[in-house]
Amino acid sequence: ENEVRRQADELDISRSKLGTLNKLEASVTKYKKKLEEMNSLRAQVRELESYNAQYLDKVLDLESTIKTMPTLKALVEKYKNQVVELETANVEAGSSLRVKEQKIRRLQEELDSALGGKEFLESQVEELRTQIASMQYREGNEDGMSAGESSSVSGGSLSADVLLGRDAVNGMRERVARLERENAELKSGNADAQLVNDLDMAVKTKESLQVALFQLQKQNDQLAEDLRNARIQNQQQPHQLQQQQWQNASDGPQPMQVSSDVGVSGMVGSAVGTAGFVSPATLEAGGAMVPAGAMQSVPTPGAALVTSSNNALSTTQIADYEGKLEKLVPADSMRVTVAELTKRLKEKESVINELSEQRTKLENYTKKTLHAVQTKYMVAVSSHRNQINEKQERVDFLEKKMKEVRASYSREQALMMSSFYEVRCGRRVTLACCLPFMLLVDTHNASDAQIGTEMQRRTMMPQGPAAGVPGAGSWLASKRTEERAKRRQV
Fold it and tell me: What is the pLDDT of residues 118-175, one digit of tens each?
């Protein structure tokens, strides 16, 4: 019976221990799952750390770009200044080019006017040649009618004057040839400087031609004056001859005819002396002295004077207009340059404002993105750290609890073994002393029952307390509380 009781006690103890073992195995599996979850969490933490490193690299790159912003701004300002300088230079070059084109056109017009003046002067020279030829013809006829000595003296003076006129005409021809050659060179050349130089030369030659024309007019006046003096002398000689003829002859109409001839010649001389040119009316009056071709080729002196006066007025007006144009050209060029520069300056200011707005938008966007990334990163890191700390605390708590359970299990096992050993030793002692102590059988049975109840009280796990007897769970709880109190005291 005692053996059966003992085995029953052992069976109960083993059943209780089996339940606790199953619970511990289930907790172990749970802990293994939690450890696996911890590994996954560690992998997630590594990924987050890698993302964190990437975000940090991006943040550092953005900070480096933000640090380079002042240098970039300085470079942008430098390039803007260079662009403005280049544009101003371009505008100035364009304005100077336009001014030069206007000057070239003006010089071309002046050249055309100079060529027209040259043609006019050539026509004047031709007219003077015809006048000189007619005067030479008239002087020759009058020399034939005059006497010997007076005619020789006047002829010598006239021949000298004619030679002077021929020299002037030759000079005029040379100048005209030079002008034609320069005109051909001007037409063949394309350089502005050459045009300007040639135009200056044309203007100078025009002025020299005007001076030569004035000299020719003076020479013509001088020749006309000499011719008038010669005619006066010639008139005096026929008058003397007529007086002699009056004395010798008896007819009266002849001196009247001579006087009419003398009046006609005087009229011709006076006309030539006053105007400096031979008019067609005077030549018609003295038609026997001048041929028809010569009369047709000689122009009127009034027309020559009008053309010379018009030419002088046109030259003065051209000079005035040139001075005004030279004053207005730089002012117009400056106005054009200022207008273009203000227009381009406004365009550049609008572009600069747009770039500054874009720059401010970019800076605000970068700041916002950096702030958002930093906040997200800090929140994620803090949340993951909290999760890791919670998991670690739970693991530590479970490991500590598992160690305590193992220690209590080993301690209870040692107590059971010691109680079994004591029970066996006591039974052996009682069996050895049973014969002399038969009277103590009842007490022994009572002691066995008491030992069994004590063992059940000590070893069994909570299976429900007996009537009036506390269960094993309360005993284990009391032991654990005592051990905890001891540890706290230590």
Answer: 788 778 778 877 877 777 777 776 666 664 444 444 444 444 444 445 555 566 677 7
| Residues contacting 479, CB < 8 A, separation 6+ | 408
The Cα 202–Cα 109 span in angstroms is: 12
Same domain for 133 and 215, yes or no, is: yes
Q: Of 258, 237, 264, 226, nearest to 147 (Cα)?
A: 237
**Model-level pTM?**
0.28
Mean pLDDT of 30-49: 84
Q: Is 447 helix (H, G, I), strand (E, B) or coil?
A: helix
Residues 106 and 212 in one domain: yes
Considering the domain architecture, whether residues 65 and 106 belong to the same structural domain is answered as no
Is residue 335 assigned to a domain? Answer: no
Q: Which residue has the tokens 């002088």?
A: 312
Unique residue bearing structure tokens 């590594």? 46
Q: Final residue of a domain: which of 253, 272, 299?
A: 299
What local confidence, expressed as pLDDT, does residue 454 receive? 56
Longest dimension (CA), the chain: 243
Task: Please report which confidence band the pLDDT of residue 388 belongs to, taking 50, 70 and 90 as the band edges.
Answer: confident
Describe the crossing of helices 192-248 and 148-188 by its angle, rounded to 10 degrees: 160
Q: Which two tokens stand for residue 207?
A: 């002025």
What's the pLDDT at 139? Answer: 72
Tokens of 465: 């307390």
Q: Which two tokens stand for residue 218?
A: 């003076």
pLDDT above 70: residue 410: yes
- Report d(CA 419, CA 421) in Å as an integer: 5
Position 461 in a domain: yes
Number of domains in the chain: 2
Residue span of the structural domain in which 151 resides? 95-299
Whether residues 49 and 107 fall in one domain = no
CA-to-CA distance for 140 and 162, rounded, in angstroms? 12
Give the alpha-carbon dihedral of 56, 59, 64, 68, to 10 degrees.
180
CB 461, CB 451: distance < 8 Å: no
Distances (CA, A) of 313 to 86, 307, 308: 47, 10, 9
For the four alpha carbons of 118, 123, 127 and 130, in that order, the dihedral sign comes to positive
The more confidently predicted of residues 369 and 169 is 369
What ranges in 249-300 are assigned the alpha helix state H? 253-275, 280-285, 292-297
Residues 255 and 135 in one domain: yes
